[in-house]
Amino acid sequence: MRLYAGSVLRSPTALLVAATAAAAPLVAGAEEVPAIGRVGTGSADPVLAPHAAAVGPRAFLDTYCVRCHGPEGPRADVRLDAGALGPDPLAALEAGADEDALDAWDWILEQVELEFMPPPGEPEPGAELRAAFVGEVRGALARAQGDPAALPLPRTPLRRLTRAEYEHALRDLFGIEHAASGLPEDAVGHGFDHVGEAQSLSEQDFVRYLDAAERAAERIVGVRRDPARVVRADAAQIRADRSRDDGAWLFSNRTAWGRLSIPRGGVYEVRAEVFAHQAGDEPARARLHFDGGARSDAFDVPFERDAPGVIRAELTAPAGGDVRVGVRFTNDYYLPATEDAPAIDRNLAIRWIEVRGPLDDAPLGAFAAEMAGGEGAGPLRAERALRRGLVELARRVWRDPALVARDVDALLALTERAQPPDERLRAAVAGLLVSPRFLFRAEEGRGPLDARSSRSLTSVETATRLAAFLWQSVPDPALLERASRVDLSRESQAVRCALDMLGDPRSEAFVDSFGAQWLQLRGASLARDGVDGAPGIDRAEAARMLEETHRVLLDSLRERRSLWDLVDGASSVIDAALAERYGVDFPAEAAGADGWARVSLEGTPRRGLLGHASVLVHTSEPGRTSPVLRGKWVLEALLDSAPPPPPPGADSLAPSDETKDLSFREQLELHRADVACAACHQRMDPIGFGLESFGPLGEVRDAVDATGVLPDGRAFDGPLELIAVLREDDRFLDAFVARLATYALGRGLERADRAFLDGVRAGLDPEHPTFERAVLGVVASQTFRRVRVD
Fold first, then answer.
1. Reduced to 3 DSSP states, what percent helix, strand and coil does the chain have, rounded to the nearest 5?
2. Which of 417, 473, 535, 706 is deepest in the core (most CB within 10 A)?
3. Interatomic CA distance for residues 421 and 384, integer angstroms
4. Are 130 and 115 contacting, i.e. CB atoms less than 8 angstroms apart?
């Protein structure tokens, strides 16, 4: 559900946006309370009741609302007449309102307070009547819903590890990377990919988790004998002096290289099919070797073009992955031509290079070696030692310090048929990783229930929430040990721990995940082909654009910059290529070793996130800007006021004979004339027009119309004036706190969360609100440190 933000929308500048609620019907027969985009623009009509007659909520609704929302063909299927709501609608609200009715009245209140209703062309109630109606409705809502802080704590759905959390968990627990390949994609709910309400686990998904667990266990414990496989590089894939149809040729004492992929370091059979152009008194000779690894002795190569032969050797590769395998020509021979004889030249040709293996037993993984008593130890410990080691491991993986030996009995029983002993260990580790106790975050809490049907999380459960929030992971052994020493469910300890975790490099994963999803840039494809001879954007530059936004958010957190810099900041973190695109000087002397530096944007129209090329390109169509997409992005991402989906048939600007000669701005004006489109577009379009100074590739454009008029009549010209409007109001901070809270809790926000959000918001310094302070405010809250228990 959407939360009504009336408590913080205190000034006329808030008229820029309106929160949108998708709620159930107010009355029987009404299909829905409409989102703003479903409300028509209306028109002047001399028959309307005189607005001066509006006294009290019922009279206000009759005077300004019922003409469009009465019993006869109510617009958007919403009825506000006495037959639907009764003669005293607020008394009925207070007498017994369910969640749907509260949501519906929230919506009505927003429409009136933010002056989206009555629509343009209809009589206006005037400031005093509007304020009086808003005050009465807000008071009735407050009495109907009671104290938000006394409402039951919202339930936190059971959450499964996401792909990223699974990946980071195995890194932090076992030191292995890239463990999540093959896992199912994460569904998105409330804008984020880790919200429990959107998660599921089908039988097919479980099989993929089982496969991932078995692959991870092989890497953790070590595989004694890999199945041998063969990889080959043909002549066209070999780097040599010259490639011909008959092979890759070497004309001097050099090495021809083939690049092949092998699973790990170890012993392999290396083979090559070769022949030579013979000359001199001995045959051509060659060696086989891995780049940086073992070399063979020299082989004679007496073979000719018509009868090539194979040379082979067992060699040790130093590491796995992509490796270079070489054939080195060792005895070049050349005599230049004379008057009496042609030139004599010995050359070597390679038709293919092949690697088969590994042929040796792999060494134990670090964990298995530890359980075996150290590197190079013999057989794994006996059953008793194995059980003791697995209990300790299960405590770490299952995040349960109270685990006792009998909790792993079933796990050991499943492994009894596995032989040799390291196979038992590998099966047990796979079982640990596929267990619900690892894959899911179950929270039970401890202690008595409070008035909100909640109780405190345990110290380990708090550590688990903190790890998911700030590291996208699970508690590592150090964090679990800390949770055993101090009670992290206490506010002071939780905040102190969160501060330490924010200083850890792993917190960059939080900034990347939260920032990319909040700003709708996760998975964004910014590469563009050139249009009409204009340059496009290649993948490298697209990656730089996304990197700028990531670095700015990371700086905001770690340098404790004001959150308002994300709206109107006059500097950014860019490299030389982006500086050239932005038309600013790049201080090469101030750049870090990676070539990035903080650069002033003064003298340009760029400010904050709205000047980032990543945002501007993402919100453009190929080859042209899109005021609609840009305005919609500002409402959704920066103001948490997403317009609803357009009604069927109203989501395009398909050209027609009527519109083919119109400018895009004129086409949008015609689009807004449709009552089904007007209310949404009168919010989105002006904002998007204010960003027309930026082209579809994020470049600055001159001589364009970047004017806009907001629904309350205020006009602006260009991005700097638009950003000044956004900066006047505090809605951005409210929206930021709400999105951060949603991310931290892994669930959608509810009415009972209002006191929590107000508390986090009140904890921000009005003069210098920071990302870090918002994070710590969330962690310090009872909502974050308690769990609903039913």
1. 40, 15, 40
2. 473
3. 12
4. yes
C-alpha 683/C-alpha 110 separation (Å) is 14
Give the CA angle between residues 391, 394, 399 to the nearest 5°.
130
**Measured on CA atoms in the order 365, 367, 371, 375, is the torsion positive or negative?**
positive
Find how far residue 669's CA is from the centre of its chain.
Answer: 35
**Could you report the per-residue pLDDT of 150-174, keeping only the tens digit for each?**
788 999 889 999 999 999 999 999 8
pLDDT at 672: 56
Q: Could you tell me the pTM of the whole model?
A: 0.75
Please give the Cα distance from 48 to 738 (Å, whole number): 40
Residue 459: count of CB within 10 angstroms of its CB: 23
CA dist 340 → 278, 335, 343, 345 (Å): 20, 12, 10, 16
How far apart, in whole angstroms, are the C-alpha atoms of residue 147 and residue 758? 13
Cα-to-chain-centroid distance, residue 181: 17
CA distance 583 to 702: 13
Strands (E), 111-207: 159-160
3-state class of 541 per DSSP? Answer: helix
End-to-end Cα distance, the chain: 22
Q: Are 737 and 757 in contact, with CB atoms under 8 Å apart?
A: yes
Q: Which residues contact 85 (CB under 8 A, 6 or more apart)?
A: 26, 27, 61, 79, 92
What's the half-sphere exposure (Cβ side, CA atoms, 13 Å) at 88?
Answer: 5
pLDDT (tens digit, 9 = 90+) per residue, 50-89?
Answer: 444 456 888 998 888 888 888 887 876 788 888 888 888 8
Q: Which amino acid is at 608?
A: G
Q: Please, where are the H alpha helices in 519-609?
A: 539-558, 565-568, 576-582
Count Cβ neighbours within 10 Å for each residue of 167-176 and write b for 16 or more, e otherwise.
Answer: bbbbbbbbeb
Contacts 24+ apart (CB under 8 A), 176-183: 176/216, 176/219, 176/220, 179/212, 179/215, 179/216, 179/219, 180/212, 181/212, 182/208, 182/211, 182/212, 182/215, 183/208, 183/209, 183/212
Q: Say which range, 412-421, 442-451, 583-592, has the weakest mean pLDDT.
A: 412-421
Per-residue pLDDT of 235-284, as tens digits, reads 999 999 998 889 999 999 999 999 998 888 889 999 999 999 999 999 99
What does the alpha-carbon distance between residue 718 and residue 710 come to, in Å, rounded to a whole number? 13
**Cis geometry, peptide bond prior to residue 644 (ω within 30 degrees of 0):** no
180 vs 170, 186, 209, 441, 617, CA distance in Å? 9, 12, 9, 18, 30
Residues facing 387 on adjacent strands: none
Residue 751, strand partner residues: none
Residue 349: its H or E element: strand 344-357
Instruction: Rounding to the nearest 10 degrees, give the CA dihedral for residues 116, 119, 121, 122.
Output: -110
Which parts of 697-753 fold into alpha helices (H)? 719-728, 731-745
- d(Cα 482, Cα 463) in Å, to the nearest integer? 9
